[in-house]
Amino acid sequence: MRYLINFDAKLMDNYETDVLIVGSGISGLFAALNIDEKLKVTIISKEDSKTNNSYMAQGGIAVTFEAEDIESHIEDTMKAGGYYNDLPAVRILVEEGRKNIEKLMAYGVEFDQEEGHIAFTKEGGHSIRRIVHKKDYTGKEIIEKLIEVVRKRENIVCYENSFLIDVLTESEGVKGAIALIDNQKKLIQTNHVVLATGGIGKLFMNTTNSSISTGDGIAVAYRAGAIIEDMEFIQFHPTPFQSQGEAFLISEAVRGEGGILRNKNGEAFMGKYHPMKDLAPRDIVSRSILKEQKVQNSPEIYLDVTHFEEGYFDKRFPSIFNYCISKGIDPRKEWIPVNPSEHYLMGGIKTDFNGKTNIEGMYSCGESARTGVQGANRLASNSLLEGIVFGNRVARTINSSGSIVNKSIDINFSELIPISDEYSKDILELKKIMDESANILRSENKLLEALDKIKKLKAVYENKCCNEKEFMEFKNMLIVSELIISMALDRKDSLGSHFMEDSNE
Fold first, then answer.
1. Above pLDDT 70, what percent of the chain?
2. Residue-number span of the structural domain to which 272 is assigned
3. Which positions are annotated as active-site residues?
4. 362 and 387 share a domain?
5. Where are the beta strands (DSSP E) in 98-204?
């Protein structure tokens, strides 16, 4: 179905804005701040402005400060991405990184320093130390500072606890959007919609993502006719704290600073699987953990930092240290139990190098976008960099085109039947299906079974509607799940994070 709800645009309460930005993560906020202050910008956030994956980011931002490191950073990004990346996009990312980091700093963002200079750390897949950070809460530092600046801008309005239902389109492009604002359905009249809605982690039982990550922006764009690509490429982070549900991330920077993965017998096993050992790209480390668990016939895998200099771990990684202590683990004396969990989507809404989709007036940036930067597997700490580089490019594109808000929208839709049935059990069923089929190790048979199950679930709810946000999220999750499984089936051979057990590695 084209839309999630029945509506008649002529009868709805309406609201005008030059630009609608959906999502308050780093890419959405950065885009908003770089849009011409003559234009009215509206940001809607599904929960509060700090509930997003950007806020939870620990490690930092990979950035090239020296010209001689440009080609190395590009090569590291390409290598991690299985050389499936779009090279021109990667070059944009690396070459425009520093000036956008300097913009962040101008907005008040502070990074750790050593002897009066920015301190750099190293993570998996990087050939040198090039990651700027704020202890182990880099995302928190960035988002809080950006929100402060956003709230001072007279041209920017923010609505929290709001939900994008659909983008309205006609043949020539975007006409507006429908959203839940203050629990009321509103028609938003605008010619520019920026989808900065983040990832898809909540399609799985275990994820490092925030609670809002149900792939809404991707589903909205798909219904509107936007091109979606590379959904099969999903990164599973190797070292979240071993838990159920919303996994707590143990940053890759811990291994960058010398943390060692050990099996239940205390053996440092990564040397068996890759020459970079604990600093191999994430997809390789995650698969290696699964292999080691199978070899030892036990899920027990640990991250060892007991050899760190006294006082260093709790000072450099205070959030991680405090979390471990709260779980009864003292990392100064004990190994930290870890297990891979869903972390990041490399694919998404296809955009050009300026964040434009194939639909006039629709843009995407951040994790919901497929810019071509990440390839088949994201290099550590390139995500926040992508958010600011391409968020800024979206803003520049909008600034060059201006805005003419539609004064009348004559669109209606009435093909859905209201539903009152219980559907929560099917949300759980969908998560189980995704866990069993689209996890780290995949097979054609599992994917075919999953596609059949998802299509049957989707058929049950296809012509149903409900004003509950959770139901609309569920319908979005069904769309995104089907896209992931279908694209995984289309790619027969293993590449990057997409690993087919029944094909050659």
1. 98
2. 243-340
3. 282
4. yes
5. 113-114, 117-118, 120-121, 131-132, 156-159, 163-170, 173-181, 184-189, 192-195
